[in-house]
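Let's practice the habit of predicting before peeking. Look at the sequence and jot down your guess about where helices and strands might fall. Then scroll down.
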Amino acid sequence: MSDKENQPPQEDSRRPDFASVPTSHDDVDAGISRRGFLGFAAASILLAHGGQQSPRLESKNGIPYRTLGRSGEKVSLIGLGGYHLGNQADPQESIRIIRTGLDAGVNFLDNCWDYNGGESEVRMGNALRNGYRQKAFLMSKIDGRTKAAAASQISESLRRLQTDRIDLLQFHEVIRDTDPDRIFAEGGGMEAVLEAQKAGKIRFIGFTGHKSPDIHLKMLSTASKHGFTFDAVQMPLNVMDAHFNSFEKKVLPVLLKNDIGVLGMKPMGDHVILESKTATAVECLHYAMNLPTSVVITGCDSQPILQQALQAARSFQALDSSQVEALLAKTATAAEAGQFELYKTSHRFDGTYANPQWLG
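Done guessing? Here is the structure:
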């Protein structure tokens, strides 16, 4: 990356407009009628082909690249999820997976301070030696809601990742209604993140969450009240989310309107969606890619799973309305109660629920 690219982003004066966005869970239908399918499919295609985030801006080794919101950064359509990399039994295999992905044209790497007790960041840091850091757009996350906790976690992540700069740092697991106010409070985590950005330790700032689109909207609204606009936002985008308490329906339009980078995660619901037998892994990946996502982050804990993700990215072509409608029709009944989106309906995926001390 050039010296110019290493500089913190300039302040952007554009602010989100939340006036027309629904803020109640009651606004999200549990199911979608046939008429709704058609309209929803058409909207998905329109979004996929609209704006700056077109399906194929450029590619590297056949991997499409898209633009990360107003940052102007080019990121690979597929991103490597950090949790599963740290969960692999052999640390050396994790390194091989990361380097194989980077050599194949993937540049977006996902991680988090708390993944596998820090092991995920340690392995990624080792993988980024020997010139591989220059190939990567490196993202990691912190849990700290207080300035002290956030600053400590940023320092630890930099040390584990063996880098002096994280390209995108995100507040992790914004899953409580109280999280936005805590992060933006005096002495809150945002103060530490902004100081780190000013010092050149991070370039862009975002947040993640998987519980409720309403909490995402509150986080965006709270940021706006404090004169701040996020560079990227991460959320579940998949064939089940489209039907139940949907981030796609409620949050995605706000991000696109404000040119905020869209990070899609849980395309297969951590494999739980596959247990429904309603969609294949490649169908799940292609559905998420068909949305105006900047990158679709997927867990790859083995070479075969990595190759599946790479092939899905290389073979992706924009879905037509009938294909989108067919996928949504197949998944509608299974999606109604959220039983295959356990990150929304249970605490199974809530690391900070089990470890509240991480919040500070």
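How did you do? The longest strand covers residues 202-208.
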